[in-house]
Amino acid sequence: MSQSWRNLLFAHWPVPAVEVQRRLPAGLEADTFEGQAWVAVVPFEMRRVRPRGLPFAFDFLELNVRTYVKPGGVYFWSLDASSRLAVWGAQTFFHLPYKDARMRCVERAGWVEYESARADARFRARYRPVARDFHADSLVTWLTERYCLYTANRRGVLYRGDIRHVRWPLEVAEAEFEENSMAEACGIQLPATPPLLHYSREIEVVIWPLRKLGSA
Q1: Which residue, 32, 69, 13, 74, is CA-closest to 197?
Q2: Can you give the residue ranges of every domain in the chain?
Q3: What homologous superfamily is domain 2-209 in, according to CATH?
Q4: What are phi and psi of 21, to 5 degrees?
Q5: Which of 28, 48, 81, 110 has the highest CB neighbour number within 10 Å of its CB?
Q6: What CA–CA distance (Å, rounded) separates 208 from 206?
Q7: pLDDT tens digits for range 140-163
């Protein structure tokens, strides 16, 4: 599957590793940077999503809550999407916890204004890049340069999916959050400290089919 991720914000908060670990499926281990686990809320636009073998592509909005697991991967607690087709396809073929949501994204006066709402979680924020000459440090590289995802089906069977793209074209960002209960809806309490914020205008991505890692 090929796709483009556009107007993406990484909003990262430090969370105790024990809190992350207790909310992971059996068989996955929380990854840490200098003993610290991290949780991210990531809003963006999915553009030109094209499953292999199909003659069409489609666009939708996505907002995910993610953390990091060993070895070198991403784990998603939730993924909001504005497309019911995308929700069905991701749940059916990728065993990912996609959720149907009412979503909106507009660019206005240099800001990206983003909203998502479902029964148990809401997100409303605006964000923009503020430093174009940005060079990622070791923490930012550790957080963002991840090239696989892990998930589990309803029986607890683990899967891995590989992801390929160029190195993230990141910029330092600023954001204003009006509502953000996304992580709380997943059982994660974010700290009151300001998040680590980074923006990416657009990146092209290729995703391979899942591979089963084990059985429940």
Answers
A1: 13
A2: 2-209
A3: Acetoacetate decarboxylase-like (2.40.400.10)
A4: -60, -40
A5: 81
A6: 7
A7: 999 999 999 999 998 999 999 999
